[in-house]
From TrEMBL:
GO cellular component terms given for this protein: membrane
Gene designation per UniProt: Ogfr
Opioid growth factor receptor (OGFr) conserved domain boundaries: 6-164
Family classification: Belongs to the opioid growth factor receptor family.
Name the UniProt record assigns to this protein: OGFR factor
Transmembrane portions of the chain: none
Single GO term (MF): opioid growth factor receptor activity
InterPro entries, alphabetized: OGF_rcpt, OGFr
Superkingdom to which the source organism belongs: Eukaryota
Protein species of origin: Falcunculus frontatus (Eastern shriketit)
Pfam families linked to this entry: OGFr_N
Amino acid sequence: SFPFRLFPLREHGMNWRARPLTCQEIQAFRKSEEVMDRFIRAYKLMLGFYGIHLVNEETGELKRAENWRERFENLNRFSHNNLRITRILKCLGEMGYEDYQVHLVKFFLTETLVEETLPNVKRSALDYFLFTVRSKEKRRELVHYAWQHFKPQSSFVWGPRDKLRKYR
């Protein structure tokens, strides 16, 4: 028997004993109402651990949870959380929750670049979280959003400045 992963992927992770998912397994998961319900419960549980609340299950809209200050302190202190968040984002894409990906990435971009509450997550948000978003169009929107709020804008390296200036 193989160890169970909360957010399985088609790639190896840090746990060398856990085998990657196959495309057939992903399709089977996506067809199972029970599996998808459990997946959303697990997602909400992890969001709660990070100080985030899922406002709308249809859209994936998020907001800070009541305990956000204490949870953000944890996120800022322990960088291993960033690997888990990247894994969750990739898994959301695998399971067909691409809109959830967009909301979670935008949440972290807002908290790191606008609110400046998660300075130690900023690099992961820009280097990794952003690029898990499957929709090229949505990813472009998020890169543009990041560029708009990045300080100093001249140091932004996650997209070509000429295209970012002309965007929309």
